[in-house]
């Protein structure tokens, strides 16, 4: 399914785009297919996410969201705003961040193949963004590689710190304000991939039961964090 124009924006309604945000890699155990352990116990913070999407942006001194050029690549300024690492102390996670777009073969979010790395959506806001959602996605697990970087993403709690490292080693701290789970066919993508509203960091992985027919997890786990300080 082709879901993006040459400028990187969704071709179809956001409600139908990027449905398989994280490809269906699966952890196999002796008992069979393991249910995704990244699913949260209870959702929280949905009103905060809605408020962020409609809130004013930061002062214009902050860097603007990257805008792809005509052939779908990124200008030099945007590439210079790419995050480099993601650290989450509560998960003992320190992962390399790769700039990714859409897999042309599947139409899915092109998460890095290695489960130890995570992917920043390069057609959206970058490290120094003053508005919109900085989206980072990662695998939960893999039959070949075991637990992924976001294996325990669903265990994050309100107030947990997430640190994004950008160009030149600069860091930016965020605080978790929401943790939600959606069916992949029902996730409100217009909120999570928005280029406007208050700046926030959006982390996405898979969740819920694994469907052996489609070889995908049914759900997406989404954690939203806002700049600290």
- Cα distance spanning the termini: 41 Å
Number of helices: 3
Q: What proportion strand?
A: 25-35%
Strand ordering within the main sheet:
3-4-5-6-11-12-10-9
Look at the structure and name the CATH superfamily of the domain at 46-56 and 80-227: Sortase
> What is the makeup of the main sheet?
8 strands, mixed, barrel
CATH class of the domain at 46-56 and 80-227: Mainly Beta
Helix content: under 10%
Query: How is the quaternary structure best described?
Result: single chain
Report the CATH topology name of the domain at 46-56 and 80-227. Sortase, Chain: A
Given helix and strand content, the structural type is mainly beta
Mean pLDDT figure = 78
Q: What's the alpha carbon Rg, rounded to whole Å?
A: 16 Å
Offer a quick outline of the entry.
This is Sortase family protein. By secondary structure, the chain is mainly beta.
Task: Explain what the structure shows.
It comes from Actinoplanes octamycinicus. One of its GO terms (molecular function) is hydrolase activity. This is Sortase family protein. The protein is mostly beta strands and 229 residues long. The chain has a domain at 46-56 and 80-227: Sortase (Sortase, Chain: A, Beta Barrel), CATH 2.40.260.10. Helices cover 7% and strands 31% of the residues. It has 3 helices and 12 strands, in the order ββααββββββββαββ. The chain has helices spanning 46-54, 76-79, 189-192; strands spanning 28-29, 32-33, 85-88, 93-100, 118-121, 133-138, 141-142, 146-147, 161-165, 171-183, 200-211, 216-227. The strands form 3 sheets. It has an 8-stranded mixed beta barrel with strand order 3-4-5-6-11-12-10-9. A hairpin with a 4-residue loop joins strand 3 (85-88) and strand 4. The chain is globular. It starts with 27 loop residues before the first strand and ends with a strand. The model is unreliable at 1-20, 23-39 and 60-71 (pLDDT under 50).
